[in-house]
Amino acid sequence: MPDIIRMLPESVANQIAAGEVVQRPASAVKELLENSIDAGATEVKLIIKDAGKTLIQVVDNGCGMSERDARMCFERHATSKIKTANDLLSIRTLGFRGEALASVASVAQLELRTKKVEDEIGTQLIIEGSEVKTHCAVNTSNGTNIQVKNLFFNVPARRNFLKSNSSELKYILDEFFRITLVHPDITFTMFNQERVLFQLASANLRQRIVALFGSNYNQKLIPVEQQTVMVNISGFIGKPEFAKKTRGEQYFFANSRFIRNPYLHHAVEAAFQELIPKDSFPTYFLYLELDPANIDVNIHPTKTEINFTDSKSIYAILQAAVRQALGKYNLTTVLDFEQEQSMEIPPLKPGQTINQPQITINPDYNPFEKKKEFQPSLRFENQGSKSKVGEWRENIPSSFIHPGNIPSAPLAELIDNLNAENNFSLNLEHDKTPHAVFQISNSYILKETSGGLLIIDQQAAHERILYEKFIAQGSTDKNPRSGIIPVTLSFSPDDAVLIKDLLEDFNALGFDISEFGNHDFVLHSIPVDLANTDYHGAVEQALEALKNDFTGKHAGKQQIIAKSLAKSSAVRRGKSLKKEEMEAIHQKLFECKVPEFSPDGKPAFFMLSFDELSKKFKT
Ligand code: ADP
Ligand code: MG
């Protein structure tokens, strides 16, 4: 039997590595920007076409490369950043594996121009799928200029796997934010489809945040500053009253790298507890500096999860730092920090536990007091008398709506047929008695019908009613609008990209939103059912739902928006309802196509039949 093991060709090995390092255009953007920063650039330009699928170009004024280095940098494991394994322990650069350029070059058509200051002439290289096509001298400015064209041109499966341009652009923006937020001193310009998307001058952190997320951020930020032996924390948190309905701007950086850390996130959330509504998210840009020895070294290039050797102490310090910042600005709690400036928290000894910082809270302070209370409205057109559809549903044979006995085909259709065949005679007299409808636990509507006791979950039912209303009116483009004084809606740039794509869908559902340049939009009118709702919050929530539901092809996006709007504006469990409101929910629910379930599939009602009831009392 002949030997069968052989070495993989270099280009194949690179492509395999690329599978890990370059998952999508955004990963190439990250690697190229990090290289420019490692090269000491003070000015970096990022040029994107078709969400990076056609072109990703990074131009920097960094140290540049010699002719030999320009060729070498595309070899796998070729790096100037470490020489020995020991260097790994004190690494301060962003890259060091020497894999990025080799990987990118294996799955794209790449052109490099580079020149060191001290050299007269620069070097040009053209590489396609790891194959060097051109290597020559060229006249070029100091620094490095890399163009990555047609990413995955030779791996169609990966190219097809890419999402829509707006999703891929959002990933790119995520990386761009994470990098530009760590280097406010570096000037960045980003072009998208030949238009400037961001022009970020060299600045301090506050100015950088404002340049990225909009001038209204200036008044939203509270500085956080805490120095301890174990970790230094700096950065900003958002004032609680600006907490958003979407996860939005939540950034942790450890030693100048963006990280994800749910445990630390929890520390910040805990510090904000009771200062922001339950469904809102605090904004934060927090920078941790600590001895690299206290971080579990992670040498995976794309990983953002890292662990700390003593996360418990970091958790406590972070939470205290955020609370202190909140307290200093006198927003909520009055903090009782004796030694405000010198909070030294020594590392914990094994077995030792942490005591929460002592905080005095003013129990009378209610940060939401001034805000208008969230008051979902029940707005049903008064139709005078009950419609036919509403009427016959009173007489649905109980077996049809018995829980666990719901026919799988939409009930509405079944009953429609039934109704047509049998022509029920209706007797609604009992509805007119004063006890015909009532509410229990401020959550459920009870009503006697000819079949038994009908129990409706008010929230699930109202969500269903609103959802079908939005959808039906969306399809006929006759959604009643409620004119409001035009208001400007500002979104984060990535949300702005998303919403631009979705304007038509929002407008079909009864909004009138138009673009107002930059990341701003003007809202002229809203669907009538949102009139008493926090509509900015409702739009943000709809965007969040779309992001979470994103299939890349915007499948059923109007449904997703409608579902989210219905959720935002529906009456909640726990709200006491007037008799007319209960009647309206009851009536409108049974005019729905699918009255059995909320748009999320939760049961909206069930029926306790008289048969069942009498069985209960039989001995
Ligand atoms: P790593 O960054 O892990 O070292 P890369 O493949 O990203 O690996 O880059 C390989 C080498 O190419 C780097 O170590 C660096 O010496 C050089 N290099 C890459 N990009 C630039 C740049 N923009 N300016 C100067 N040198 C660069
Ligand atoms: Mg690199």
Rg, Å, rounded: 30 Å
Structural class: alpha+beta
> What would the CATH topology of the largest domain be?
Heat Shock Protein 90
What profile does the largest beta sheet have? 8 strands, mixed
What is the 3D shape? Answer: elongated
Q: Can you list the ligands bound to this structure?
A: adenosine-5'-diphosphate, magnesium ion
Average pLDDT value? 78
| Proper CATH architecture of the largest domain | 2-Layer Sandwich
CATH class of the largest domain: Alpha Beta
Segments where pLDDT lies below 50 for 5+ residues?
A: 331-346, 357-361, 365-432
- Quote the beta fraction: 15-25%
What does this protein look like?
This protein is of the alpha+beta class. It folds into 3 domains: 10-202, Histidine kinase-like ATPase, C-terminal domain (Heat Shock Protein 90), CATH 3.30.565.10; 207-331, 2-Layer Sandwich (Ribosomal Protein S5, domain 2), CATH 3.30.230.10; 457-605, 2-Layer Sandwich (Ribosomal Protein S8, Chain: A, domain 1), CATH 3.30.1370. The protein has 18 helices and 22 strands. The protein has helices at residues 10-21, 25-38, 67-72, 100-106, 156-161, 165-180, 205-213, 262-272, 311-328, 388-392, 398-401, 411-422, 458-476, 493-508, 535-549, 557-569, 579-589, 610-617, and strands at 43-49, 55-60, 109-115, 122-128, 131-138, 143-149, 187-192, 195-200, 221-227, 232-238, 250-254, 257-259, 284-289, 334-335, 359-360, 437-440, 444-449, 452-457, 481-490, 512-515, 520-527, 605-609. It has an 8-stranded mixed beta sheet with strand order 5-4-3-6-2-1-7-8. The radius of gyration is 30 Å and the shape is elongated. The protein starts with 9 loop residues before the first helix and ends with a helix. The site of adenosine-5'-diphosphate has 24 residues, from helix 2 and helix 4.
